[in-house]
Amino acid sequence: xxxxxxxxxxxxxxxxxVPAHGGAAWRVFLHVPSGPVPxxxxxxxxxxxxxxxxxxxxxxxxxxxxxxxxxxxxxxVIVAIGYPVEGAYDPLRRSWDLAPPPGKTYPPFxxxxxxxxxxxxxxxxxxxxxxxxxxxxxxxTVDASRQALYGHSFGGLFALYALFTRPSAFQTWIAASPTxxxxxxxxxxxxxxxxxxxxxxxxxxxxxxxGEYETEKLAPFQIGAEDEEKRLQQKKVTRTDExxxxxxxxxxxxxxxRASFExxxxxxxxxxxxxxxxxxxxxxxxxxxxxxxx
Length: 294
Prior knowledge:
Elements: E1 12-17, E2 26-31, E3 42-47, H1 50-65, H2 68-71, E4 77-82, H3 91-98, E5 105-106, E6 116-117, H4 121-139, E7 142-152, H5 154-165, E8 172-176, H6 182-185, H7 187-196, E9 204-211, H8 228-238, H9 240-252, E10 257-264, H10 272-284
Parallel strand pairs: 3-4, 3-7, 7-8, 8-9, 9-10
Antiparallel strand pairs: 1-2, 2-4, 5-6
InterPro entries: AB_hydrolase_fold (IPR029058), Esterase-like (IPR000801), Siderophore_Hydrolase_D (IPR052558)
Protein name: Alpha/beta hydrolase
Family: Belongs to the esterase D family.
């Protein structure tokens, strides 16, 4: 008879992190490779929606980093920020954490639950910069010149907000299927402030992306479905691929910013997650960094 045991994520620990001012804890997943520390310290990939991405990110790196000359992926530290819940997401808290200010208040997701608030991205970014990064640096030797941030959907919007408000916080940014349309493109006022005063000497790589079925095109399984017309109308609002592509073109024109857009064949808004997690690993831990966007 075989023995049953938990399947753990390799070299990964879980920490429920209460911020200094108190309040609800974030669940931080910390992956540190078991090999020797590089002379310059570990590159670090920070990720939002940590519960949903940590396993994929770790295994994507492990599968490729053993063969760096064939994959261009080396080893690095992964810090995935999630919530103390059993599921992949905490919809209520992520709505607050990842959406730019000033935000709005929306009806509850379901009866008997709190109203949904947005606009807490500034506080969340301050937590990452002022508390989480020093905590990580107290545990592992990090390479401060190789810090990356990944986010999907609202997380992609957060990555843009972080670039526009704290452009020196990371060097590599991955905004997958960013909800640029959100709240009448509230992100644009932060973009305009950034555009008016791009920091001298800035070096930033920004990868934006969308799935084939985030365009005007429906996925095959959506064609003829009951909600087909509703989805087509929503696409006219979200315009994920169009807004991400034009954002990349605009950012690429800024001094020191290298921005690109990727359209992933066969993917929808949720199925794009593991694809872009892998792209984040490839960009954050590229051995030859001039090829990170290839």
